[in-house]
Amino acid sequence: MEYRELLTVEDKFEADVIVEALEKECIPFKLSPNEELTLEPVFHLQRPYGSILVPDSFRDQALEVIEAVLKAPPLAENEPLPEGLEADALATDPVD
Length: 96
Hints:
Elements: E1 3-9, H1 12-24, E2 30-33, H2 35-39, E3 50-55, H3 59-71, H4 87-90
Antiparallel strand pairs: 1-3, 2-3
C-alpha cells in the first residue's frame, strides 16, 4: 500500500490530536516527522513538525476526520469531558 502526504502538521500537539482521531476511525496512516527537528532544536520554531501520510483509498475519509477534529470548538468550562477522557489527565499541578 502506497502512502502519500495528506497534510503538514505544525506542532506535536496538532499531530497527536490528528493521530488519535485517525486511529479511532481505523484509518491507516504514517506520521513522518521533520528530520531537521531532531538535528537542531532551533528549527522547532521555524519548521513544521511533520507530515501525515495516508493511502489514496483512505484520502477522503481521512480529510473528513481531520477537518472535523481541527474545527471542533474547545470544551466550555462546565461542559462534560468526552467519554474515555478523565479529568485527572487534564489536571496540572499549580506552580508555587
